[in-house]
Amino acid sequence: MPGTPRAGIIPVTPFQQNCTLIWDDATKVGAVVDPGGDLDRIEAAIREQGVTVEKILLTHGHVDHAAGADELRERLGVPIEGPHQADKFLLDSLPETAANYGLDAARPVTPDRWLDEGDAVTVGGLGFDILHCPGHSPGSVVFVSRDARFALVGDVVFKGSVGRTDLPGGNHEQLIRAIKDKVLPLGDDVAFIPGHGPTSTLGAERVSNPFLQD
């Protein structure tokens, strides 16, 4: 029996990035997705929900998603999985990027496991398939629970928008292709948590997202 996912969104950093605490309702074992900063707030949410965090997941290497990952790994004593290795240059340069944006000091991040298309990740009794969806960043990945009809999409697609592609390694055509070829075919009923802003469903975005209309 697959587990039932529960999720809590913790907005972090001045970018109001959706750090997400996801857990298996049956076991209360979970993961922190994209801890970009404000680690005390993230740890308070973990305690409040009574979740045992077993790993950190990264959708991509941008500073608002990954800057707190190395320190949180140290605090919790858990591994980091993701993103795709194509984002190594972003993770290596997190200290400089954070300084440029006037954010709290950040450490470079080397994941314990890079993820690629077709890989699988477990969180408690939950299973996620990995889609490599470059465009916003070269190494962006999407975590998909096919059983629960749920996805964590990072900055690939948003309610009414898509990820910006004017940052290093960005490519708009590549991003739209990844969304149309890999993400939308998962099904209209799939709900998703993006890296910023409100949640949505793939069906709603397929019919109303202006970036996805032919």
Gist?
The protein is built from seven helices and 13 strands. With 214 residues, the protein is of the alpha+beta class. Strand 2 and strand 3 (29-33) form a beta hairpin.
Any low-confidence stretches, pLDDT <50, length ≥5?
Answer: none
| Fraction of helical residues | 25-40%
Broad structural category: alpha+beta
- Beta percentage is 25-35%
Largest sheet: 6 strands, mixed
Number of helices: 7
Q: What's the total count of β strands? A: 13
* Rg, alpha carbons: 16 Å
Spatial strand order of the main sheet: 6-7-8-9-12-13
Give the N-terminus to C-terminus distance in angstroms: 40 Å
**Average pLDDT:** 97
Shape, principal axes of CA atoms = globular
User: What string gives the helices and strands in order?
Assistant: EEEHEHHEHHEEEEEEHEEH
What does this protein structure show overall?
With 214 residues, this protein is an alpha+beta fold. The protein is 25% helix and 28% strand. It has a six-stranded mixed sheet with strand order 6-7-8-9-12-13. A five-stranded mixed sheet has the order 1-2-3-4-5, covered by helices on one side. A two-stranded antiparallel sheet has the order 10-11. A hairpin with a 5-residue loop joins strand 12 and strand 13. The longest helix is centred in the last third of the chain and has 12 residues. The chain starts with a strand and ends in a 6-residue tail after the last helix. The mean pLDDT is 97.
